[in-house]
Amino acid sequence: MEVWTGVSQVSVVLYVCTLLWKRQQILDVLHRCDLTCAFLIGPLIGPLVAALCCTESPDSYSGAVCGGCCCSVGLICIIARKQKLLPVQNRAVLVTGCDSGFGQALVQQLSRMGLKVFAGVLDVNGVGAQRLRELRRENLQLLQLDITDAAQVEAALQHVQTQVSDSGLWGLVNNAGVLQCPVDAELQPLAAFRRCMDVNFLSAVHMCQLFLPLLRRAAGRIVNVSSLAAEVPMPMFGAYGASKAALKVVSEVMRQELAPWGVRVSVIQPAGFRTSTSDRFTDSVRRHAAQLLATVSAEARADYGDSYISSLSGGLAIMSRQAAADLSPVVDDMCDALLSANPRALYAPGQMGWLLPFLHRTCSTTVFDAIISHLPKYTNQQPEVQRLLWTVGSLFKL
């Protein structure tokens, strides 16, 4: 018994020392708040669980503590290890949607690291493109690239081909996307559904198909930017979530299909980041409010009410204020997907990046719907019929 007690004490000391030794890496992981956080629970409570599961004798108790601590040390070392990054020399990456947000932050980081970067922008004369020009980096090239414009996509392909020659294209980051105003699916115009599918899904697939010969030549990487809404059904994000879910499914299929060619496919699934400033939404909000009132059916308009429908157009500005301004967790994961020796299939940066999917998979429908109903709303109005029913119900209670 004394031997086991001594071993268990040494194991506990080793466990604590490992926590201290790896504290910075663990804090970095916690800061990123990705799926890895879920696995941190195991190492932290491992010794306790092991001790509780085996208490028949002091020897077995000490052995359980020893085993739990050793397993925890191993898990901590695996989780907090620093990924080995591949060399950046002679590697070229094409990133779409670089006018702002994730795309712009990513190309700044990649060009700083020394990769050859092709930054696709929607407006080569716009503010975002000018901001990239001011970096004055020889390894950063701007491309006029509206991914829904076949001519511009073909021109970008020809340009990249001439630049990379026989070495091929190392990375394609399908970051460009659109987010319509958060609106109930019944009220969302079909044009908004089509727009989301065209930009967020079909155009990204088209980019993959056109650039895959260059990617195969380099045995490179495809990084597709999806969304938390692709995995977790969230009210008012029907159009956006459906398009991102489609992209995620195709990405997982392509990951399996392209593995024999050495091409790795990763999905970035951000949760709650601010990719544009709220003042950019002013004009689109006005247009969207008018479009909603013009396209919604008379019956739906009567049930929801004009005040509720008009309030929905301010959802993007509200969402922007609630979102995280620091984009570094997403950019770090994108860089890891591009340059890690062993990239993950799924990255989920963001405070809710792992929690909401976990709850969605494990909770009953009733419990999960109750959780979602208590998340921050994008309007302070209620549909007219619901408001009347609530008022009548309150009167009966009185």
From TrEMBL:
Q: Does the keyword Oxidoreductase apply?
A: yes
Entry superkingdom: Eukaryota
Pfam families linked to this entry: adh_short
Instruction: Output one GO BP term.
Output: steroid metabolic process
User: Record's PROSITE patterns?
Assistant: ADH_SHORT
One GO term in the molecular function aspect is: oxidoreductase activity
Going by the UniProt record, its keywords in alphabetical order are:
Oxidoreductase
Family named by the database record: Belongs to the short-chain dehydrogenases/reductases (SDR) family.
List the protein's name: Hydroxysteroid 17-beta dehydrogenase 2
